[in-house]
Amino acid sequence: MKTALITGITGQDGSYLAELLLAKGYRVVGVVRRSSTTPYERIAHLVDRVELVSADLLDQTSLTDVVHETQPHEIYNLAAQSFVQTSWTQPVLTGEFTALGVTRMLEAMRKAAPKSRFYQASSSEQFGKVIETPQRESTPFYPRSPYGVAKVYGHWITVNYRESFNLFAVSGILFNHESPRRGLEFVTRKITDAVARIKLGLQHELRLGNLEARRDWGFAGDYVDAMWRMLQLDEPDDFVIGTGETYSVREFCIAAFGAVDLDYRDYVRQDEKFFRPAEVDLLVADPSKAEQKLGWTPTVPFAELVRMMVAADLARYERPR
């Protein structure tokens, strides 16, 4: 039985990845921070099938101890301060978690389990002010937020450890991936949650920032499969993961409100406080390398993803009623 260690197991991607690995017969160990609360909503259905251990991306010793004790075959580093907007108000904390946290995990692996295989969650936000469209593995990075800058560091330190210490370490440059488990602070869930509340008479308007920003949106459940495939290769390599299609925030609103027969123009208001200090206008992936080398293609199209998220939020609010 293979052992997988997942940081960020309580997040969207961590929960889908844990499901996938359990289905493949893995022993799954999840890293959680010590806390007086237990934010395990996304993995509530899995807690009796996974092992949860305490460690912190800010604490080198705790990470090294966990890797030494569990001796994982595969390490998936998904934990980060991952909300772009927050990275401007907490840039130092973002750097500690999202950049230096990667170094600490790699150091833990190098010292305690150097034969393990390491996956780093890189991000399309690294491309930022894009140099070319679509974006591929060779596209230069031009991050436009402290989060994007931190992710660039995490990406290159992974490459550096791979080349310096001969570790099996890869980065998946994942474009936006969504699901009903997405946090409410992210624009896609903010929209679908508001659609459900407006449809049920619990809310009357939705305030958003830049409606013209365009993103490559896919389903998180598809993307964790790509993570796993990267660690099954004979040689480590980095991959762009996305759908190759791009839609604006406005088009997401049209699809989400349309799913409940409403017109977004009646409810959506633009609010300057939700605009980024430095905007990323267009992100769209070229996932051809992943298709060729990993045999990976997305299975959930944009319209289906939006309907899925709206339906889940409607069900969540209707259940207590």
What does this structure look like?
- The protein has about 325 residues and is of the alpha/beta class.
- The protein is built from 10 helices and 13 strands.
- The chain has helices at about 10-25, 60-70, 85-90, 90-110, 145-165, 185-200, 220-230, 250-260, 290-295, 300-320, and strands spanning about 5, 25-30, 50-55, 75, 115-125, 170-175, 175-180, 205-210, 215, 220, 240, 245-250, 270.
- The strands form 4 sheets. Strands 3-2-1-4-5-6-11 form a 7-stranded parallel β-sheet, sandwiched between helices. The protein has a two-stranded parallel ribbon with strand order 7-10.
- Helix 6 packs across helix 10.
- The longest helix has 22 residues, at about 90-110.
- The protein is globular, with a radius of gyration of 19 Å.
Using the CA coordinates, give the radius of gyration.
Answer: 19 Å
* Helix and strand composition category: alpha/beta
Helix content: 40-55%
* Parts with pLDDT < 50 across at least 5 consecutive residues: none
Q: Largest beta sheet: what is the strand line-up? A: 3-2-1-4-5-6-11
**Average pLDDT over all residues:** 94
